[in-house]
């Protein structure tokens, strides 16, 4: 049976360590004993069981989780491991941030903000 927003909102682990609510096709919502809710997608790639973390509920809605699930299935159909793809994108984003934010860049911004404070009208 497919999940509904109402069922997700009222779902609780009822003291169990973990509870999984399945939506179909490997997509499920993991509910911890503390009430945290995590979207997961279980799939097989090259004969191995894999799990893709999609996000937390309610930050990722049921509709968004289903879309991310479909996107991951598309990658699988193309022979791409969604978990490895996500990991590669994260590494690339970090690399781009490191390249764009240099000490010189930060120092120049700091200097431009502080420049009016240090100007001396009497010295001019």
TrEMBL record:
Tree of life domain: Bacteria
Ranges of residues in domain Integrase DNA-binding: 3-88
GO biological process: DNA integration
Keyword field contains Phosphoprotein: no
Classification via InterPro entries: Integrase_DNA-bd_sf, Integrase_DNA_bind_dom, Phage_Integrase
Keyword annotations: DNA integration
Pfam families: Arm-DNA-bind_3
DNA damage recorded as keyword: no
Family: Belongs to the 'phage' integrase family.
Protein name listed in UniProt: Prophage CPS-53 integrase
Gene name for this UniProt entry: intS_1
